[in-house]
Design a protein that fits this description.
It is a single chain. The protein has 13 helices and 12 strands. By secondary structure, the chain is an alpha+beta fold. A hairpin with a 5-residue loop joins β3 and β4. The longest helix is centred in the middle third of the chain and has 37 residues.
Length: 381
């Protein structure tokens, strides 16, 4: 602003402006004011055009994650430095197969070039067997955008956690069984009236710990593939009746009415043992949170190429903020009540995993009048 506090001759003003603008990259600026104005106008127009039509490399460089622009032939047209660092190779000009030695990633990217957006996980043999999550999306002009995320550390941490949980649960089974047996033996004897409440507490907590270790082992086996499922055509009525019979005693103890509506000829493609486990967990959960003299209903029906099975209750419902996370392991809506009921916090996590390995999915809808937990599985002829 000091420049305008006094009258400055034109040549001196031009010199001041030139001195300020010479720091800008580009060709030397002219001395004449009119030429200077025209030069600045041309430069501003060029910058505006570049901003409106950025180069492929400029667009890819804007991505914070490893990303590349793929052209026909599954060849890297542009890639950012994060991608080159992840793959430890200069990718531009190479094909996806040349850069990664992964047939799966190459085929995955080729599908995106034909217009199919998708996600997958891939192991890259040329990059020390790194595990990456890949996302590919088609772009105009027959090109595709490929974005990778390194999942190696996350997968290793999950494997270590899974191994620890499995080993710890296995080692806990023996001492828990011994504690339970000793408590039951002492309760069967003539115990001192002062000691009996403590023995009952030991037996109750040992039973709860036994359920927890059992659920942890089951979930660990499922995640590691040691719980194989055998898919086949199953009669939905038979599986539903078996699950209802399993929870009937507990429902009767609370005065809860159990109802069911399942078409007799309904067939579902599933593993009978896995489906029964899902239904028992859902029904047991509904009975646990439904007040005395309430109602729990099991419904099933065909829904196009799928079978939809629902467990409805007349409990207090699940708040919207909890519904997204309710199938996570150890997540509890009401922590105090769940612990008092002896739950392990793993029942719905097991439900979700068993549904997924059978090609299905689960969800929840809830309001003030109760909750509906639903399971969708492929139908069978």
């Amino acid at each position: 602003m000091a420049l305008f506090k006094r009258v400055v001759p034109l040549p001196e003003a031009i010199a001041v402006i030139r001195g300020a603008l010479e720091t800008i990259d580009g060709p030397p600026l002219p001395l004449d004011l009119e030429e200077l104005s025209a030069s600045l106008s041309r430069r501003a127009s060029a910058m505006s055009a570049a901003a409106a039509n950025p180069s492929p490399q400029a667009m890819i460089d804007a991505f914070p994650e490893p990303a590349a622009l793929i052209e026909p032939g599954c060849r890297f047209l542009a890639a950012n430095s994060a991608l080159d660092d992840l793959l430890a190779v200069r990718t531009v000009g190479r094909t996806v197969l040349q850069a990664t030695r992964s047939d799966k990633l190459s085929e995955f990217t080729s599908r995106a070039l034909t217009g199919c957006a998708d996600r997958c996980e891939v192991t890259l043999p040329a990059q020390d067997n790194k595990i990456v999550g890949a996302m590919a999306a088609p772009l105009p002009g027959g090109r595709a955008l490929l974005v990778l995320r390194d999942l190696t550390a996350q997968k290793r941490a999950e494997a270590v956690r899974g191994d620890f949980i499995a080993n710890a649960s296995h080692e806990l089974r023996t001492p828990v069984s011994a504690i339970s047996g000793a408590a039951e033996t002492l309760l069967g004897m003539e115990a001192d009236d002062n000691a009996r409440p403590f023995l009952e507490m030991i037996a109750r907590q040992a039973a709860r710990l036994s359920r927890l270790t059992s659920d942890l082992l089951d979930l660990s086996r499922m995640e590691s593939g040691q719980w194989p499922v055998e898919l086949g055509s199953q009669n939905a009525v038979a599986v539903c009746e078996s699950a209802l019979q399993f929870v009937k005693e507990r429902a009767d103890a609370k005065g809860i009415h159990l109802g069911a509506d399942v078409p007799e000829r309904l067939k579902v493609c599933c593993d009978a043992r896995a489906l029964e486990q899902i239904l028992v967990n859902l029904l047991d959960n509904a009975i646990k949170y439904t007040p005395e003299n309430g109602r729990v209903t099991l419904l099933a029906d065909a829904a196009g190429p799928h079978v939809m099975i629902s467990v409805l209750d007349t409990g207090p419902g699940v708040e919207v903020r909890h519904q997204r996370r309710i199938f996570e392991r150890f997540y509890r809506v009401d922590r105090g009540r769940a612990r008092a009921d002896g739950g392990s916090g793993l029942g719905l996590a097991i439900v979700k995993h068993l549904a997924q390995v059978q090609g299905g999915e689960v969800g929840v809808e809830s309001g003030r009048g109760g909750s509906r937990f639903w399971l969708k599985l492929p139908s069978a002829p």
